[in-house]
Each structure stands twice: as structure tokens, then as C-alpha cells.
Amino acid sequence: MATAIIGFNDIFTTELSHTRDSDGSTIVTWKRKVRTDVNFTAPVFGSQYLFLGSIYVYVTRVTIIRTSGEFVEVEAQLEGVGSAGSSTSGQQESIGSIAEEPIQTHPNFSSIFQAATTEGVTYDENNNFVGFNSKAQGGLAGVQSYLSPTLSYRRSYTTTTTPSLVNVGRVFNANAFADFPDVVNGANWLLTAMNFTSKAGVLTVSEDYRASSATRWNPYIYREAT
Predict the structure, then answer these.
(1) Which of 159, 156, 161, 195 is nearest to 177 (CA)?
(2) Which of 125, 155, 187, 214 could form a disulfide with 183 if both were Cys (CB 3.0 to 4.6 A apart)?
(3) What would the pLDDT profile of 64-80 be if each residue is shown by its tens digit?
């Protein structure tokens, strides 16, 4: 696609303004008053322009209004972000919470099991662990679950490149992205969801991650991200 260049010195521009959000997305408003007897081509919806040397913007709206006398007013709105193919980190959100998990999934279950003593453990008819009975030591009588701390993280950003969904359900190392929050030593991140919307060639992306414990996500179940 050919890219035209616009800027504050554009000889065709009578008024040019822009706003830029913290996530890098930019909205440009372009206005010009044109005589009706002058051959003039208005910006085309969807066309790409280079703004201020580094921001690629796309025409999202064009309005032509006949004013008094022999003039029409042309107004275009353009939206974009960064350089072509780039991504700009926008906002991050971390949520720490507690989830109830079966006691036998505790990373230190073998030590807990020993603390309860053999007489304090109850099994079903298939010799599977059920829980700790009244004879259990260490205050474990009746315990069937424990509260496990969990950390969820959402990173949102804008980009001009369509993201791949292939890594949803896969694992990232703790330092895969500079904006990942700190986690316990050995933990990694599971990408649980990805959503994106597109407008005027700019995509707003959100990615949801969940941190593992220090023992990491099981590599036999969850593959490494590519």
C-alpha cells in the first residue's frame, strides 16, 4: 500500500490537530476549506498516511459540508499507532487471589501426610486417599483442602500486526516480557486467553496469564510457547 505523508507543514492543510493516548494510539483531525471550482480529491476512507514521521494512521471518517458562498469544508479523522508492524504496551493489571485446592495437590503433601501419621489417614475402598480423620496429628483432622494463592495478569497493548492465537494454552517463561510482574523463583506463566479488536488498521489486544507455583506448569500437559 502506498503511504502518503501528512504533517503540520502540509500545504493543503488549513487546520490539523491530534491527540495521543498513553497506549500510543493517535487520533488526527484534518480540516480544509476548498473552493467549489477547484479540482480537489478528498482523503479516501481506509487510506494510510504517515504522521509526524513515525505514526501510521488510517482514514476512519470523511465529512464534506457545503458552507456559505463558493466553499465546501472537508474534514477527515485518522487513527493509528506507532510505526507499521509495531506494538505499544498500554496498560497492565495484576490480580492476586486465593483458590481452594484438594489437599493432596499441595506441593508439600508428602510432608503433610507424614505429619498426620498413618492412623490419621482415611482411604476409600480402592485405597485412594480421602482425607484426614480424627486421629490425625498436627491439627489436620478433617482437612480436605487448602487455600492456594494465585496470580493473574492482563497485559493490553495496541499494534498494527494481527497477533497469533497459537500460544493460547501454552507456557511463557517468567521473563518473557519485561512488564511481567515478579513471581516466586521457578514459576512461569500460562496464557489463558487472548482477545483483540481492529479499527482503522489498529488492533487493541488483551492477553490474560496465570502464574504457576514454584514447581511450574506441568510440561507434559502444557507446551512451551513458540
Answers:
(1) 156
(2) 187
(3) 888 777 788 888 888 87
SS3 47: coil
Residue 201: helix, strand or coil by DSSP?
A: coil
How far from 191 is each of 147, 158, 214, CA to CA, in Å?
A: 23, 18, 17
Whether 173 contacts 125, CB under 8 Å: no
Short-list 52, 82, 101, 105, CA closest to 161 = 82
Rounded to two decimals, what is the model's pTM?
0.56
Question: Strand 121-123 relative to strand 71-81: parallel, antiparallel, unpaired?
Answer: unpaired
In the chain, which ranges are continuous DSSP H helix? Answer: 109-116
User: In this structure, what DSSP letter does residue 111 have?
Assistant: H
41 exposure class (CB count in 10 Å sphere: 0-12, 13-18, 19+): exposed
**Rounded-to-5 percentages of helix, strand, coil across the chain:** 5, 50, 45
Render pLDDT for 157-186 as a digit per residue (tens, 0 to 9).
878 788 899 999 999 998 888 778 888 788
Query: In the chain, what is the greatest distance between 2 CA atoms, to the nearest angstrom?
Result: 99
Q: What is the pLDDT of residue 23?
A: 60
The Cα–Cα gap between 44 and 59 comes to: 7
Distance separating alpha carbons of residues 172 and 190, to the nearest angstrom:
6
